[in-house]
């Protein structure tokens, strides 16, 4: 069972991102403020859940959260500021959209940058420990997957509907055959060294 709170703050938000290791598409983050009596037994780190379970959880999280938001950071910005900074930016932008403003932030992972003097803690594997981070991981993943499904229609030869932009053998073969698109991250190693 996941913990509801890391601190005593009622307005504690969790944040997480999806798509850091992808060759194409945005890095997507979500931030979630959960109410005191929140309890979703199915909730866990999105990587531990089936796609079906994530899709089932998304509307429940959105319905019961005090506030939530999701931010996509495009490949052009990822290439400009690097993936770590883009991931942090996506999380920060998501947090800034929350109403009310959180009094404390818990972040999945070990890297973050101060945001408007709001105290924060980074928590390794936080998405498998705290509900708000797990909820953020589910939203980030489902929104990003939906985005990849949408751009798949534009460039079906890369099969993003299936691989979501991750570096699968099939994705790399398609890059080799068809070249890159505006959705590819040009600073990433798109092809394996021969």
Give structural notes.
By secondary structure, the chain is of the alpha/beta class. The protein contains six helices and five strands, in the order ββαβααββααα. It has helices at 51-64, 75-81, 83-96, 131-154, 160-163, 169-178, and strands at residues 12-18, 27-33, 67-73, 104-108, 120-123. Strands 3-2-1-4-5 form a five-stranded mixed β-sheet. A hairpin with an 8-residue loop joins strand 1 (12-18) and strand 2. Helix 1 (51-64) crosses helix 4 and helix 2 crosses helix 3 (83-96). The longest helix has 24 residues, at 131-154. The N and C termini lie far apart (46 Å).
Structure class: alpha/beta
Structure annotation, total helices: 6
Largest sheet: 5 strands, mixed
What letter string, H or E per element, gives the SSE order?
A: EEHEHHEEHHH
Which of globular, elongated, flat, extended, rod-shaped describes the shape? globular
Strand proportion, as a percent range, falls in 15-25%
The rounded Rg comes to: 17 Å
Total E-strand runs:
5
Strand order of the largest sheet: 3-2-1-4-5
Percentage of residues in helical conformation: 25-40%
Mean pLDDT: 95
What is the terminal separation in angstroms?
Answer: 46 Å
Low-confidence stretches: none
Q: Regarding quaternary structure, how should these chains be classified?
A: single chain
């Amino acid at each position: 069972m996941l913990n509801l709170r890391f601190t005593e703050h009622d307005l504690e938000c969790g944040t997480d991102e999806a798509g850091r290791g992808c060759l194409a598409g945005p890095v997507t983050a979500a931030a979630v403020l959960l109410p005191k009596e929140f309890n979703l037994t199915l909730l866990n780190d999105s990587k531990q859940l089936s796609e079906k379970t994530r899709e089932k959880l998304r509307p429940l999280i959105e319905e019961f959260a005090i506030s939530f938001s999701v931010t996509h950071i495009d490949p052009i910005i990822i290439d400009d500021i690097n993936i770590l900074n883009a991931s942090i930016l996506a999380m920060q932008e998501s947090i800034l959209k929350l109403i009310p403003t959180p009094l404390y932030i818990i972040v999945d992972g070990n890297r973050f940058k101060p945001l408007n003097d709001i105290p924060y803690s980074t928590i390794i594997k936080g998405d498998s420990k705290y509900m708000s981070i797990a909820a953020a991981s589910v939203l980030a993943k489902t929104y990003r997957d939906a985005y990849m499904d949408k751009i798949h229609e534009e460039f079906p030869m890369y099969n993003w509907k299936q691989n979501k932009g991750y570096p699968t053998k099939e994705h790399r073969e398609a890059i080799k055959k068809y070249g890159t698109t505006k959705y590819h991250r040009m600073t990433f190693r798109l092809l394996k060294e021969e």
